[in-house]
Amino acid sequence: MKHDFSHLPDIFARHQQRPEALIMILQDIQKEYRYLPCEALQETAKALNVPLSKVFSVATFYNAFSLNPKGKNVVRICVGTACHIRGAALIRDQIENALSIKAGQTTPDMEFSIEVVACVGACAMAPVVIVNEQYHGSVKPSNAKRLVKGGK
Ligand code: FES
């Protein structure tokens, strides 16, 4: 995937170019590109003067970071215990069918990614689906498809 990396110097300039800034820089890169492109990690290592292995170990340690491109819209299906008991598996099936991809995948047009997540702390609303940053509670399998079709 081709990217315009001309924003990287701006991102680096927003932070002190010291190893302690690594996580914040990775957060900004993830926000900009919706994942952490390999080239950006290489540039980060250079800018902070830290080994690339260190940058990769931080990038792979935190779940918030992704090394794979994500869709414009990220659909997170909670599969924690409360959501599981209230039908998360069925909701997952409906959403996967609606988008013709499996959890962990991104649509070829880069519009949607599906992720499964553990409890997101909203068990009273179970089952929960988060489309981008918006929480949807008490989701029914019958309206799960509508969530992603209207989730743009
Ligand atoms: S188990 Fe889904 S929000 Fe807690």
From TrEMBL:
Cofactor: binding details: Binds 1 [2Fe-2S] cluster.
Keyword Zinc-finger included in the entry's annotation: no
Annotated protein name in UniProt: NAD(P)H-dependent oxidoreductase subunit E
Family: Belongs to the complex I 24 kDa subunit family.
A Pfam family of this chain: 2Fe-2S_thioredx
InterPro entries, per the entry: NADP_DH_HndA-like (IPR028431), NuoE-like (IPR002023), NuoE_dom (IPR042128), NuoE_N (IPR041921), Thioredoxin-like_sf (IPR036249)
SUPFAM superfamilies on file: Thioredoxin-like
Keywords: 2Fe-2S, Iron, Iron-sulfur, Metal-binding
A GO term, aspect molecular function: metal ion binding
Signal peptide: none
